[in-house]
Design a protein that fits this description.
Helix content is 17%, strand content 50%. It is an alpha+beta fold. The chain has a single domain (7-19, 30-155), classed as Lipocalin, CATH 2.40.128. An eight-stranded antiparallel beta barrel has the order 1-2-3-4-5-7-8-9. A hairpin with a 2-residue loop joins strand 5 (97-109) and strand 6 (112-118). The longest helix is centred in the N-terminal third of the chain and has 14 residues, at 7-20. 22% of the residues are buried.
């Protein structure tokens, strides 16, 4: 996708977003997002090896409206094996932050769940989040994670 922003573009957008917010709503986030590119904390050049690895395992982020608010799933594929984390999320603040908590991890073989486990709820001050930077109508989403890395996803 040629209209994706580069690291410098995202840092510029991020500085603006910190002052003015994004206007992103849950409606604009709903969908299946495939990870396209990642940058390490403080980096303006992408981490090509990490990005290639995450694309190779088809790392995805799925967001949907649910009875609990927003449902979230993160998954990777190794052939027929799917490792999937599911839980709930909420948008908080003007920027906003997409705070989330995974309640379940599953290992699937095709459509069959072969192993599942409930996960503990993190303490509020340790809750993972994505600080949203931009959601472009051409089909990409950018955010900074709690650990400081930057991610860019394409809508699938």
């Amino acid at each position: 996708m040629s209209d994706r922003p580069n690291g410098h573009d995202l840092l510029t957008q991020e500085a603006t977003v910190r002052r003015h917010g994004t206007g992103i709503t849950t409606h604009g986030l709903v969908g299946r997002w495939r990870l396209a590119q990642v940058w390490g904390k403080g980096q303006t050049t992408p981490s090509n090896l990490a990005s290639m690895g995450l694309r190779a395992v088809q790392a995805t982020l799925e967001l949907e409206h649910s009875a609990a608010g927003v449902g979230i799933a993160n998954s990777i594929l190794f052939g027929p094996i799917n490792l999937r984390f599911t839980g709930t999320a909420e948008l908080v603040g003007r920027r906003p932050l997409l705070r989330f908590s995974f309640q379940t991890v599953e290992l699937r073989w095709g459509e069959s769940v072969v192993w599942a486990r409930s996960l503990p709820t993190p303490q509020p001050q340790r809750m993972p989040f994505f600080a949203l930077i931009a959601r472009d109508s051409s089909g990409w989403l950018a955010a900074r994670g709690r650990g400081g890395g930057l991610a860019l996803w394409d809508l699938v």
